[in-house]
Structures are given as C-alpha cells and as structure tokens.
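Friendly challenge for the regulars: who can give me the structure tokens for this chain first? No prize, just bragging rights.
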Amino acid sequence: MTDPASPSYEAARDELAQVVQKLEAGGATLEESLALWERGEELAKVCQGWLDGAKARLDAALAERRGD
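First reply, four minutes later:
Bragging rights claimed.
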C-alpha cells in the first residue's frame, strides 16, 4: 500500500476494531449500522492490502536470498 491517502495498517485496524465495537453494542439506527458496516468493509480491504503487500515483500526477499 503506497497510496498516501490510505491510512496505515495500524490506523485502519484500530478504526476497524472501533467499528466492530459500535456494531456489537447495538443501539444504532439501521442507516447508521449500514454506514458502519460499509466503513468496516473499506477498512478491512485496506488492512488486507497492507498484509498482501507485506507478504509479497517477504516472498521477494526470501526468493532473493535463495537466489531465485
């Protein structure tokens, strides 16, 4: 993830945890719950992008080390 507009992994993870807590607590309207769900989906994609990028970097480093 190199998009400067995208939050760091840690920021996205922390915000995602807050979204989950709000959804689990209940009490939100349907519209609020849908907005939270959609934000959670966006944040999960950001986190997954960071994790995929980290895995690719590790795989590349291991391949280089093996001389592939």
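The longest helix spans residues 30-66. The chain has a mean pLDDT of 94. Your move, everyone else.
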